Amino acid sequence: MRVLVTGGAGYIGSHTVLKLLGQGYEVLVLDNYANSSPQALARVKILAQRGFDIREGDVCDAAFLNDVFADFRPDAVIHFAGLKAVGESNQEPLHYYKKNVSGSITLLECMQAHDCRQIVFSSSATVYGEAEYLPYDEAHPLQPTNPYGRTKLFVEEIIRDWAKSWPAASAVLLRYFNPVGADPSGLIGEDPRAIPNNLVPYIAQVAVGRLDHLNVFGDDYDTRDGTGERDYIHVEDLADAHLAAVRYAQDHKGCEAINIGTGHGTTVLELLAAFEEASGKKIAHQTVAKREGDVARSFASVSKAYDLLGWRAERDVADMCRSTWNWQSNNPFGYDG
């Protein structure tokens, strides 16, 4: 089976490509390297001990995409390509709508023109917005609070309409919670291009000395220790979920949205303690004011993922921290050295 992976050089994409290759899929990666490194794919080839095709380009470029589809003739697409920083999306909303929404429309047009009927879309729990109840299940109201989250929701709705209009089509919308961790080899992992927006890579960069300390935003939330609680999912489990979604799409038509998380939360201080245990490092941190828009608790209902995909998370927070430290300590400056 031939699978086209857009954004396959990125953090989640590279781990998924490695899993696909390990299961014998024929893979073509499409990436413009705006937020990724070609070095990630070179390392995937080393780990997989087999080659795969790579095309550098943008999903917004219809002529380029049509050439890729004509040459590779994919049976399915896993669509990671897109911009993903919440803060940046508030500053540059039109850029986010152009890349994330217009790019996805161009991709769907090419899929239909080349009779490629299956897509797995990299969505996000940000589509839910403020929690009306917990855990978030797939029936929770969708009310994202920033342009990034709205691009994910808009693309979900576009894919849903596309699948409804084409009875042969199959789409799986995977709503990630908080991906962390790295491949156990330490060769591939998360490599933010600027100061990390997310907690675990920030902690890891403090641990290797790239950053001075961690700011803990608020300590009076209604949680076990007063700090924010989130559902963290190991990137290897997330990659496995994509393979399960590809298999599901082969045998089912229509469109399904599915949460990908562990089903329970970990607080900032609990995660900090787990990382200190994994790394043997004391992580400098200080408590500062809460950030506007942060919620106290967020975690997923994951029963639908098991019922439809036969998938559940296998790795815990200790695994996430150990693998992150293995990656960061061996690659203190990421793919740059």
Helix content: 40-55%
Structural class: alpha/beta
Summed over residues and divided by their number, the pLDDT gives a mean of 96
* The named CATH superfamily of the domain at 2-182 and 232-261 and 298-314: NAD(P)-binding Rossmann-like Domain
Strand neighbour order, sheet with most strands: 3-2-1-4-5-6-11
**SS field, number of helical segments:** 11
The rounded Rg comes to 19 Å
Number of strands: 14
Q: Could you give a short account of the major beta sheet?
A: 7 strands, parallel
Contiguous uncertain segments of 5+ residues: none
CATH topology of the domain at 2-182 and 232-261 and 298-314: Rossmann fold
CATH class of the domain at 2-182 and 232-261 and 298-314: Alpha Beta
SSE series? EHEHEHEHHEHEEHEEEHEEHEEHH
Strand percentage? 15-25%
Would you mind describing this structure in some detail?
The chain is of the alpha/beta class and about 325 residues long. The protein has a domain at about 1-180 and about 230-260 and about 300-315: NAD(P)-binding Rossmann-like Domain (Rossmann fold), CATH 3.40.50. The protein contains eleven helices and 14 strands. The strands form four sheets. A seven-stranded parallel sheet has the order 3-2-1-4-5-6-11, sandwiched between helices. It has a three-stranded mixed sheet with strand order 12-9-14. It has a two-stranded parallel ribbon with strand order 7-10. Strand 1 (about 1-5), helix 1 (about 10-20) and strand 2 form a beta-alpha-beta unit. Helix 1 packs across helix 8 (about 235-250). The longest helix is centred in the N-terminal third of the chain and has 21 residues, at about 95-115. The radius of gyration is 19 Å and the shape is globular. The relative contact order is 0.15. The mean pLDDT is about 95.
